[in-house]
Known about the structure:
The chain is α/β, with parallel strands linked by helices. 21% of the residues lie in helices and 15% in strands.
Amino acid sequence: MTHAFLPASGSTSINADAPVLVVGPTLHEDDYQALRSFARTVADQTGTPAVFASHDDYRVTDFSALYVVPLEWDDDVTPLLLVAGALVHGVPVHVPQDPANAVACELCSIPLDVYVTPGHAGDILCGQCRYIGIVCAWCGDDADDDEFMEVVECGESWQLVHEGCVSEGRRVQGPDAFITE
Length: 181
């Protein structure tokens, strides 16, 4: 097993365009489902693909940030290796926000339960409002201002896919091609 906190190829740089990693307890099925669900929330609210960490064998420098699940971590401290590695390598770690610190999207006013990185102008936008320029995981094209991107499950991650590509993927691969929860 590789150590989760070692940087890829000896590099310590962070890829800002990389997906985020969501960490939390996974010993019990309920914990795993809560981790999976929170990762979807992160992807939806940030407009960034989110991997839910089912083990500790990840290179944290392959991710633009880590998000910590808002759960009690009774007896599962293994994901803390990922958090420690992120802190060592300067990868931002976002802990659960207190409801009093939650903000709203500046365009659509939807409440944001997770930390959202401010845009280039300092604006706070939800995933729906910042879809322009995000690449579709199915076709590889960017979104534009009249296209809606859906958050779909792909393995152990939530990816952003054009609404039309979801329909096409289901037509080609069957109704279970994308899980949108």
